[in-house]
Amino acid sequence: MAKRDLLTPIGITIGFIMVIFGIMSNAGFSGITSFIQASSIVIVLGGLIAALLVNFNLSELKLTFRVTKEAFKSSDMNLRELITLFVQLSERARREGLLALEAELEEVEDPFIKKGILLAVDGIEPEVINDIMNAEIVAVEERHQKGRAIFEKAGEYAPAWGMIGTLIGLVLMLQSLTSPETLGPKMAVALLTTFYGTLLANLVFIPMAAKLENKTEKEIFMKQVIIEGVIGVQSGQNPKILEEKLGAFLSEEDKKIVEEEKQEDTLGEAANEA
Question: How much is the pTM?
Fold first, then answer.
Protein backbone atom coordinates (compact mmCIF):
# COMPACT_ATOMS: atom_id res chain seq x y z
CA MET A 1 0.00 0.00 0.00
CA ALA A 2 3.02 2.25 0.34
CA LYS A 3 4.83 3.97 -2.49
CA ARG A 4 7.88 6.18 -2.67
CA ASP A 5 7.51 9.77 -1.55
CA LEU A 6 9.81 11.60 -3.95
CA LEU A 7 9.28 15.04 -2.43
CA THR A 8 11.62 14.31 0.49
CA PRO A 9 14.73 13.45 -1.57
CA ILE A 10 13.82 16.10 -4.14
CA GLY A 11 13.58 18.78 -1.46
CA ILE A 12 16.89 17.82 0.15
CA THR A 13 18.61 17.65 -3.25
CA ILE A 14 17.27 21.06 -4.29
CA GLY A 15 18.49 22.52 -1.01
CA PHE A 16 22.03 21.26 -1.55
CA ILE A 17 21.98 22.37 -5.18
CA MET A 18 20.94 25.89 -4.17
CA VAL A 19 23.77 26.06 -1.63
CA ILE A 20 26.29 24.84 -4.20
CA PHE A 21 24.91 27.30 -6.76
CA GLY A 22 25.26 30.14 -4.28
CA ILE A 23 28.89 29.23 -3.67
CA MET A 24 29.76 28.78 -7.34
CA SER A 25 28.02 31.97 -8.43
CA ASN A 26 30.37 33.96 -6.21
CA ALA A 27 33.56 31.92 -6.17
CA GLY A 28 33.33 29.63 -9.19
CA PHE A 29 33.86 25.89 -9.16
CA SER A 30 37.08 26.25 -7.22
CA GLY A 31 35.10 27.83 -4.40
CA ILE A 32 33.53 24.45 -3.62
CA THR A 33 36.84 23.14 -2.33
CA SER A 34 36.98 26.02 0.14
CA PHE A 35 33.85 24.65 1.79
CA ILE A 36 35.25 21.15 2.26
CA GLN A 37 37.12 20.81 5.52
CA ALA A 38 37.65 17.35 7.00
CA SER A 39 38.21 18.40 10.61
CA SER A 40 35.03 20.51 10.61
CA ILE A 41 33.02 17.58 9.27
CA VAL A 42 34.47 15.27 11.91
CA ILE A 43 33.66 17.69 14.73
CA VAL A 44 30.04 18.18 13.63
CA LEU A 45 29.20 14.57 12.73
CA GLY A 46 31.29 13.04 15.51
CA GLY A 47 29.89 15.38 18.14
CA LEU A 48 26.35 14.86 16.85
CA ILE A 49 26.65 11.08 17.03
CA ALA A 50 28.19 11.28 20.50
CA ALA A 51 25.38 13.51 21.77
CA LEU A 52 22.72 11.19 20.35
CA LEU A 53 24.40 8.19 21.99
CA VAL A 54 24.23 9.98 25.32
CA ASN A 55 20.63 11.08 24.79
CA PHE A 56 19.08 7.82 23.53
CA ASN A 57 19.44 4.13 24.27
CA LEU A 58 20.34 1.56 21.62
CA SER A 59 16.78 0.37 20.98
CA GLU A 60 15.65 3.94 20.35
CA LEU A 61 18.54 4.64 18.01
CA LYS A 62 17.66 1.53 16.00
CA LEU A 63 14.34 3.20 15.22
CA THR A 64 16.23 5.84 13.23
CA PHE A 65 16.61 3.68 10.13
CA ARG A 66 13.01 2.45 10.23
CA VAL A 67 11.63 5.95 10.80
CA THR A 68 13.87 7.43 8.09
CA LYS A 69 12.37 5.02 5.57
CA GLU A 70 8.91 6.29 6.54
CA ALA A 71 9.89 9.79 5.44
CA PHE A 72 10.53 8.42 1.95
CA LYS A 73 7.24 6.52 1.70
CA SER A 74 3.65 7.60 1.25
CA SER A 75 0.38 5.73 1.38
CA ASP A 76 -1.40 5.27 -1.93
CA MET A 77 -4.82 4.82 -0.26
CA ASN A 78 -6.65 8.09 0.07
CA LEU A 79 -9.68 8.76 2.24
CA ARG A 80 -12.17 8.47 -0.61
CA GLU A 81 -10.86 5.01 -1.50
CA LEU A 82 -11.05 4.01 2.16
CA ILE A 83 -14.69 5.07 2.41
CA THR A 84 -15.51 3.20 -0.80
CA LEU A 85 -13.89 0.07 0.63
CA PHE A 86 -15.96 0.16 3.81
CA VAL A 87 -19.17 0.83 1.91
CA GLN A 88 -18.45 -2.27 -0.19
CA LEU A 89 -17.68 -4.30 2.93
CA SER A 90 -20.87 -3.07 4.55
CA GLU A 91 -22.95 -4.02 1.53
CA ARG A 92 -21.51 -7.52 1.43
CA ALA A 93 -21.85 -7.99 5.20
CA ARG A 94 -25.54 -7.05 5.07
CA ARG A 95 -26.10 -9.25 2.04
CA GLU A 96 -24.07 -12.35 3.00
CA GLY A 97 -23.16 -11.90 6.66
CA LEU A 98 -19.96 -10.89 8.44
CA LEU A 99 -18.27 -14.24 7.78
CA ALA A 100 -18.29 -13.47 4.06
CA LEU A 101 -15.86 -10.61 4.68
CA GLU A 102 -12.98 -13.02 5.25
CA ALA A 103 -12.82 -13.54 1.49
CA GLU A 104 -12.51 -9.77 1.00
CA LEU A 105 -9.46 -9.60 3.25
CA GLU A 106 -7.27 -11.27 0.62
CA GLU A 107 -7.43 -8.05 -1.41
CA VAL A 108 -6.82 -5.76 1.58
CA GLU A 109 -3.16 -4.90 2.20
CA ASP A 110 -3.50 -2.66 5.24
CA PRO A 111 -2.91 -4.79 8.38
CA PHE A 112 -4.92 -2.39 10.54
CA ILE A 113 -8.01 -2.84 8.36
CA LYS A 114 -7.49 -6.61 8.33
CA LYS A 115 -7.24 -6.71 12.10
CA GLY A 116 -10.41 -4.68 12.52
CA ILE A 117 -12.43 -6.78 10.09
CA LEU A 118 -11.21 -10.03 11.68
CA LEU A 119 -12.30 -8.73 15.08
CA ALA A 120 -15.70 -7.90 13.60
CA VAL A 121 -15.98 -11.32 11.96
CA ASP A 122 -15.15 -12.95 15.30
CA GLY A 123 -18.17 -11.23 16.80
CA ILE A 124 -16.26 -8.94 19.16
CA GLU A 125 -18.39 -6.18 20.66
CA PRO A 126 -17.98 -2.72 19.04
CA GLU A 127 -16.78 -1.18 22.31
CA VAL A 128 -14.08 -3.83 22.64
CA ILE A 129 -13.02 -3.39 19.01
CA ASN A 130 -12.77 0.34 19.60
CA ASP A 131 -10.61 -0.17 22.71
CA ILE A 132 -8.29 -2.70 21.02
CA MET A 133 -7.73 -0.62 17.90
CA ASN A 134 -7.31 2.64 19.79
CA ALA A 135 -4.70 0.95 21.98
CA GLU A 136 -2.77 0.13 18.81
CA ILE A 137 -3.06 3.74 17.67
CA VAL A 138 -1.53 4.90 20.96
CA ALA A 139 1.32 2.40 20.56
CA VAL A 140 1.99 3.54 16.98
CA GLU A 141 1.97 7.17 18.05
CA GLU A 142 4.48 6.50 20.82
CA ARG A 143 6.82 4.61 18.48
CA HIS A 144 6.68 7.38 15.92
CA GLN A 145 7.26 10.01 18.58
CA LYS A 146 10.43 8.26 19.75
CA GLY A 147 11.76 8.02 16.22
CA ARG A 148 10.88 11.63 15.48
CA ALA A 149 12.58 12.78 18.68
CA ILE A 150 15.93 11.59 17.32
CA PHE A 151 15.67 13.95 14.37
CA GLU A 152 14.43 16.78 16.57
CA LYS A 153 17.41 16.38 18.89
CA ALA A 154 19.78 16.08 15.94
CA GLY A 155 18.39 19.39 14.70
CA GLU A 156 19.29 20.92 18.06
CA TYR A 157 22.71 19.32 18.45
CA ALA A 158 24.08 19.87 14.93
CA PRO A 159 24.23 23.71 15.12
CA ALA A 160 25.56 23.48 18.69
CA TRP A 161 28.43 21.26 17.61
CA GLY A 162 29.00 23.56 14.67
CA MET A 163 29.43 26.40 17.13
CA ILE A 164 31.79 24.30 19.26
CA GLY A 165 33.92 23.68 16.19
CA THR A 166 33.90 27.39 15.42
CA LEU A 167 35.04 28.20 18.96
CA ILE A 168 37.87 25.69 18.63
CA GLY A 169 38.89 27.34 15.38
CA LEU A 170 38.75 30.82 16.92
CA VAL A 171 40.94 29.77 19.82
CA LEU A 172 43.52 28.34 17.42
CA MET A 173 43.27 31.48 15.29
CA LEU A 174 43.86 33.80 18.25
CA GLN A 175 46.95 31.83 19.14
CA SER A 176 48.48 32.77 15.80
CA LEU A 177 47.89 36.53 15.86
CA THR A 178 51.58 37.01 15.19
CA SER A 179 50.92 35.85 11.62
CA PRO A 180 48.21 38.19 10.27
CA GLU A 181 48.28 36.61 6.83
CA THR A 182 46.88 33.36 8.28
CA LEU A 183 43.95 34.94 10.11
CA GLY A 184 41.61 35.02 7.10
CA PRO A 185 41.98 31.37 6.10
CA LYS A 186 41.78 30.20 9.71
CA MET A 187 38.64 32.26 10.33
CA ALA A 188 37.06 30.72 7.23
CA VAL A 189 37.87 27.23 8.47
CA ALA A 190 36.48 28.06 11.91
CA LEU A 191 33.17 29.21 10.44
CA LEU A 192 32.76 26.08 8.34
CA THR A 193 31.72 23.96 11.31
CA THR A 194 28.83 26.34 12.03
CA PHE A 195 27.95 26.17 8.33
CA TYR A 196 27.87 22.36 8.36
CA GLY A 197 25.84 22.15 11.55
CA THR A 198 23.31 24.76 10.48
CA LEU A 199 22.93 23.24 7.02
CA LEU A 200 22.31 19.73 8.34
CA ALA A 201 19.87 20.97 10.96
CA ASN A 202 17.76 23.16 8.69
CA LEU A 203 17.85 21.11 5.50
CA VAL A 204 17.78 17.55 6.85
CA PHE A 205 17.02 17.00 10.53
CA ILE A 206 14.36 19.61 11.35
CA PRO A 207 12.43 19.18 8.06
CA MET A 208 12.56 15.39 8.45
CA ALA A 209 11.20 15.64 11.98
CA ALA A 210 8.39 17.90 10.78
CA LYS A 211 7.58 15.57 7.90
CA LEU A 212 7.45 12.55 10.20
CA GLU A 213 5.12 14.43 12.54
CA ASN A 214 2.87 15.28 9.62
CA LYS A 215 2.86 11.66 8.46
CA THR A 216 2.03 10.47 11.97
CA GLU A 217 -0.94 12.83 12.19
CA LYS A 218 -2.24 11.63 8.83
CA GLU A 219 -1.75 7.98 9.76
CA ILE A 220 -3.56 8.40 13.08
CA PHE A 221 -6.39 10.21 11.30
CA MET A 222 -6.75 7.40 8.75
CA LYS A 223 -6.71 4.78 11.51
CA GLN A 224 -9.49 6.61 13.34
CA VAL A 225 -11.56 6.57 10.15
CA ILE A 226 -10.83 2.85 9.83
CA ILE A 227 -12.11 2.25 13.36
CA GLU A 228 -15.35 4.06 12.55
CA GLY A 229 -15.67 2.01 9.38
CA VAL A 230 -15.04 -1.32 11.11
CA ILE A 231 -17.55 -0.57 13.86
CA GLY A 232 -20.08 0.54 11.27
CA VAL A 233 -19.67 -2.71 9.34
CA GLN A 234 -19.76 -4.82 12.50
CA SER A 235 -22.93 -3.16 13.79
CA GLY A 236 -24.68 -3.66 10.45
CA GLN A 237 -25.15 -0.01 9.59
CA ASN A 238 -26.87 0.80 6.33
CA PRO A 239 -24.14 1.33 3.67
CA LYS A 240 -25.61 4.71 2.74
CA ILE A 241 -25.58 5.86 6.35
CA LEU A 242 -22.03 4.57 6.79
CA GLU A 243 -20.96 6.41 3.66
CA GLU A 244 -22.45 9.65 4.96
CA LYS A 245 -20.89 9.12 8.37
CA LEU A 246 -17.40 8.49 7.02
CA GLY A 247 -17.88 11.23 4.45
CA ALA A 248 -17.86 13.74 7.29
CA PHE A 249 -14.09 13.17 7.51
CA LEU A 250 -13.59 14.31 3.91
CA SER A 251 -12.24 17.73 3.05
CA GLU A 252 -14.49 20.11 1.12
CA GLU A 253 -12.50 19.43 -2.04
CA ASP A 254 -12.92 15.67 -1.68
CA LYS A 255 -16.63 16.09 -0.98
CA LYS A 256 -17.01 17.94 -4.28
CA ILE A 257 -15.15 15.16 -6.09
CA VAL A 258 -17.43 12.55 -4.52
CA GLU A 259 -20.53 14.50 -5.55
CA GLU A 260 -19.24 14.80 -9.11
CA GLU A 261 -18.55 11.05 -9.23
CA LYS A 262 -22.06 10.33 -7.97
CA GLN A 263 -23.56 12.59 -10.61
CA GLU A 264 -21.53 10.85 -13.31
CA ASP A 265 -22.68 7.44 -12.04
CA THR A 266 -26.30 8.61 -12.02
CA LEU A 267 -26.04 9.93 -15.57
CA GLY A 268 -24.36 6.71 -16.67
CA GLU A 269 -27.13 4.58 -15.17
CA ALA A 270 -29.79 6.77 -16.78
CA ALA A 271 -28.08 6.44 -20.15
CA ASN A 272 -27.92 2.66 -19.81
CA GLU A 273 -31.60 2.44 -18.94
CA ALA A 274 -32.47 4.60 -21.94
Answer: 0.80
